[in-house]
Design a protein that fits this description.
Layout: H1 15-18, H2 68-78, H3 85-107, H4 114-142, H5 151-163, H6 172-183, H7 190-212, H8 215-228, H9 234-239, H10 244-268, H11 270-277, H12 287-304, H13 313-332, H14 340-360, H15 366-372, H16 378-388, H17 396-415, E1 425-426, E2 432-433, H18 446-463, H19 468-477, H20 488-495, H21 499-513, H22 516-523
Antiparallel strand pairs: 1-2
Helix pairs in contact: 3-7, 3-10, 4-7, 5-7, 5-8, 11-12, 11-13, 12-13, 15-17, 18-22, 19-21, 20-21
């Protein structure tokens, strides 16, 4: 399916022109694949915020000395040519072949010798090739309307891909897959859709197995297919396998070609990353950091892309890049980190809030936001709107759910508030800071502090009239030293005497303190 290349097509610029890509907006919205296109992706791709209401327009920038790395980077990636859909398919197939080879190798018995494992590996590849061939024939026999692919062309293309991926000739395998998708896109029966998708995967599995075959065996099979119209038996194919050293060379070649394909896919789509990243400027993250996070999303897209699905890599990668950048913004752009799911809820509520401001002519309250958001069911929202028009009363249960939704929205919107630095200057002269005007609930009033200090001095003067042991007993019993009261047992253990003796010492000391000459200075503090 030849879909528009979306973001990449809008960046077909000369290297000198590419410098200004962050200074201008690209006309039109980026291409969005159909929902079904990405349905079978192994990992759910969260759609990054891409609505015009949520994208902050790129501020006017001036490339100063501090932004030289950006200029140099844009110049460098501007010299890399974009890939055609054919090239993307071929490079992605090299990666898929390497993943298939690794998967088959992991299934081999680890207890076997290395040479035996490698021989068994290619025997399994031969078996997979022949099984796919038989399954495709059986499918077409039971479905006469489905045309069987030309296996000689598929086999020949798979070996040509081992030699080069840059080719002016169209890919027969890709054209066949795309044509098949187009002819059957109207099928609505889920079971039929699953069968057709299995047929496509079987064709691509045959293509991958043919790609993994050693060249000598592939040429032999191609000759047999052209001359006899069929493949030889599995045993005959195994007998035509080269020696183990040649098989090892074949494995290394597959790995090297996959690594080269990964590099080419990444380099050719770096401009796509810049195109997406510059749309998120003004959110507290520098352009270089946005590009870096977008590149991580691009790497993920390279590893997850399935060329058999029929859509273009640039279309697929756009969503991974947006997801990576949006998650990074949610985690890093704020001083206090907000969870990703909450960040998305905030974005939706802010969008609803702006819409209601224009509609109502005032700032909406949490109750207004609840009516327009997903925090209430559609039925509840309709009932509330009808009640507000005076057509029906609001039940107690409905009012309770409405209040709960409004409270939840209020908490979410409160978490969206930006923190303020305590060192923020206050006033025109910048002589005061915000922290100077914030009350310390734990601080003691100056008058209270002075009174406490005077009381402490009077207590110490009064205790000075007692003996050393009497003073120590009172200090321990009433916590005059560490603020902690001690029991009679704890004090008796400290002095190694009985509790009764400590009680007697305490009573005698208190009688001395109650004498008017000593207590008159303390009574005024207790009214």
């Amino acid at each position: 399916m030849d879909e528009p290349q979306g973001e990449v097509d809008s960046l077909e610029l000369e290297p000198e022109e590419l410098e200004g890509v962050i200074l201008q907006e690209i006309d039109g919205e980026p291409f969005k694949p159909d929902e079904g296109d990405l349905l079978d992706s192994e990992v759910e791709i969260e759609e990054a915020t891409d609505e015009s209401g949520e994208i902050v327009a790129a501020p006017s920038l001036t490339l100063e000395l501090s932004e030289d790395p950006v200029r140099l980077y844009l110049k460098e990636i501007g010299q890399i040519e974009l890939l055609t859909a054919e090239s993307e398919f071929r490079l992605a197939t090299r990666n898929e072949a390497k993943k298939r080879l690794d998967w088959l190798m992991e299934r081999e018995n680890a207890s076997l010798k290395d040479d035996e494992r490698i021989h068994n590996l290619f025997c399994q590849i031969i078996k997979d090739l022949l099984e796919s061939y038989k399954n495709l024939q059986a499918f077409c026999q039971s479905n006469p309307v489905v045309e069987l692919p030309d296996f000689t062309l598929v086999l020949a293309e798979s070996q040509a891909l081992r030699q080069q991926w840059e080719c002016d000739e169209p890919s027969y395998t890709r054209d066949y897959l795309n044509t098949f998708w187009r002819e059957n896109e109207h099928v609505s029966d889920p079971i039929r859709q699953q069968l057709l998708a299995g047929f496509i995967q079987e064709i691509y599995a045959f293509f991958l197995a043919a790609y993994l075959l050693p060249e000598s065996l592939a040429l032999y099979l191609l000759e047999q297919l052209r001359s006899k119209g069929n493949f030889p038996t599995e045993k005959t194919c195994q007998n035509h396998l080269p020696d183990v050293p040649d098989l090892k060379k074949n494995i290394r070649a597959v790995s090297d070609l996959s690594e080269d394909a990964t590099q080419n896919l990444i380099k050719a789509n770096l401009r796509l990353v810049v195109s997406v990243a510059k749309r998120y400027l003004g959110r507290g993250i520098s352009l270089l950091d946005l590009i870096q996070e977008g590149n991580l999303g691009l790497l993920r897209a390279v590893t997850k892309f399935d060329p058999a699905r029929g859509f273009k890599f640039s279309t697929y990668a756009t969503w991974w890049i947006r997801q990576s950048i949006s998650r990074h913004i949610a985690e890093q752009a704020r001083t206090i980190r907000i969870p990703v799911h909450l960040f998305e809820s905030i974005s939706k509520l802010l969008r609803i809030q702006r819409s209601l401001v224009q509609k109502l002519g005032r700032d909406p309250n949490p109750e207004d936001l609840a009516i327009e958001s997903d925090f209430l069911s559609e039925d509840d929202r309709n009932r509330i709107k009808k009640a507000l028009k005076g057509d029906a009363p609001i039940s107690a249960d409905l009012q309770s759910r409405w209040d709960a939704a409004a409270l939840k929205i209020q908490r979410i919107m409160k978490s969206a508030e930006e923190p303020v630095s305590l060192e923020r200057p206050i006033g025109d002269e910048d002589s005061s800071q915000l922290g100077d005007f914030i009350e310390d609930d734990e601080a003691i009033e100056p008058m209270d502090a002075a009174a406490r200090e005077m009381l402490r001095e009077q207590v110490q003067n009064a205790l000075g009239a007692l003996s050393e042991r009497e003073r120590q007993v009172l200090e321990l019993r009433f916590g005059l030293i560490d603020g902690k009261d001690h029991t009679l047992e704890e004090v008796s253990n400290y002095f190694n005497v009985t509790r009764e003796r400590i009680r007697q010492i305490e009573a005698k000391a208190l009688r001395k303190l109650r004498h008017p000459t000593r207590s008159r200075h303390l009574r005024e503090y207790f009214g």
